[in-house]
Amino acid sequence: MEKTIRITGKYLWIPITPGAKDSIVSFYMDGVKIQEMCIETGEEKPHFYAWFDASAYQGAAMTIEGDYKEAWFENIVVRDKKPVNPSKRPLIHYAPEFGWLNDPNGLIYDNGVYHIYHQHNPYGVRWENMHWAHTSTGDFLSYTQTEDVLFPDEEGPAFSGTAILDQNNCLGLGAEAIAYYYTSAGGRSHWSKAHKFTQKVAVSTDHGKTLKKLEESVLPHINEENRDPKVFYHEESGSYIMVLYISDDTFCFFQSKDLIHWEKIQEIIIPGMWECPDFFPLTCEEDGVKKWALWSADGYYCLGDFNGKYFQAEKNKEGDTIARYQLYEIITDGENKADRNFVRPYAAQIFKGTGDRILQLSWITSVKKDRNYAGILSLPGELGLSKTTDGYRICINPAKELAKLRSESFSEVLDEKEEALAPCFVSLYSGEGQALEIELTVSDARQIKGKGESCLKLTVFGTLFSIDLSSREIKVGPHRIPLNEEKEHHLRIYADSDVFELFACKGLTYAVTDNEGDSVSGSVEIEYSGIMGDIKLHVLREIRISE
């Protein structure tokens, strides 16, 4: 079907009905395609309205072509204001107003602001139509959400990538210009079916607010889906390094002196690691040892040394393969690494420009019914390098800024009376509509006092966390999260309407699980035996998101 609509306002409202028929819809001005969408075109009243900025076409006639019904077209409107789509959002996790969110991209701290870009489908609550969305924050307490900054075109959707400050003015746009490397995913849309995956660059000269694509690819097509460039400046060698996912479990390193011309310097194969690479140094505070970490989407990583030309990854104890570790060490249904249908952190990236602080965000794969969005960002975590009995490992702890969300606090000492014959019970909190931070410090009283089993059941808004110090694990929903052999365990849980985030073992264990009740209303209760320690509960303020 082909219809024409007169552009009489700034925004074209696009009706979206999740679950309706898929349609490829193209938009033309004077015979030139300006936009293509794969969207669900229902005939009934839309669930919500997406939009795009049509201000450049004021007064002109726009042609809309695609496999849609006339009833869907009749729901399209043009307005001077964006549509308002009321929808429940998480309280302390960032989520877009509407649309699908996945991989964080181009994270950079510039001019006092954390710029956060992410994969975004602004035309539905499923993976399609990959754009780069943009939000920014100075403190992780309040966010400014702006319009999308990178768009699909005839060469492909805008897949994941990275940002780097062009401090040496390689691109000739000034030392404050930011270069954004991304994958142009040719062939992943009807519009780009004649193209292949290539690596491209966009630039910003206004501190990340707007991005302009450069025409030429900086890396041509290598294979079917080479993607997700990670670019940084290596001070010691005076060169720029790109890490690129190639295929299966293969990554390549490239080197450049000018951010445009790249030479392949290494190919590395690491079984079990794939896509969304990150690469960064960490220094152990205990002994000053420095390690480079190659990170992949599932939270798997390997450690080693890097000299600007070659990454020497550490081997396993047998010395025959590269040692691979995982920060997200969750056992689900008897298998390590949660099934992809479970809520989990994914595709984490660190911020550039933060000095000695290594701050990381990940995509949390939470999809809730009756929401105008799908997918949220994790809380900001600070990475470190810990020395353990098994060697060096990456640890993650909540960023210090999150403490400023606390509004009021409660605490309780956990210590059985000597004469106790039954588990102890504590009702710590009851409330509605507020996210929580829960800090637990617990020890095995069985070992200390010679008592029986050592376990604690923590129920938060109807979700049960069963902490068993005898078997050294935490059970929640379908997950089992291992604990280490420390005598005293420190756990921190953030409870939000969509998910729970859990940090344990001094940051060596990190997990995300679904809040199946979709609620932050109810009580927090504790039942324990053979446990001694204390619990602190902090009621948290809601983050602020504005435009």
Describe the 3D structure.
By secondary structure, this protein is mostly beta strands. It has three domains: 78 residues, no CATH class; 215 residues, 5 Propeller (Tachylectin-2, Chain A), CATH 2.115.10.20; 141 residues, Jelly Rolls (Sandwich). The chain is built from two helices and 45 strands. The strands form nine sheets. An eight-stranded antiparallel beta sheet has the order 26-25-39-38-37-36-43-34, with no helix packed on it. The longest helix has 5 residues. The radius of gyration is 25 Å and the shape is globular.
The main sheet comes to: 8 strands, antiparallel
| CATH evolutionary superfamily of the largest domain | Glycosyl hydrolase domain, family 43
- What separation lies between the terminal Cα atoms? 35 Å
Please state roughly what percent of the residues sit in beta strands, choosing from under 5%, 5-15%, 15-25%, 25-35%, 35-45% or over 45%.
Answer: over 45%
Structural class: mainly beta
* CATH architecture group name of the largest domain: 5 Propeller
Q: What is the 3D form?
A: globular
Output the CATH class name of the largest domain: Mainly Beta
Give the beta-strand count: 45
Number of helices: 2
Low-confidence stretches: 336-340
How many domains? The number is: 3
Cα gyration radius (Å): 25 Å
Keywords: Glycosidase, Hydrolase
GO cellular component, one term: cytoplasm
Domain Glycosyl hydrolase family 32 N-terminal: 93-390
Protein name: Sucrose-6-phosphate hydrolase SacC (GH32 family)
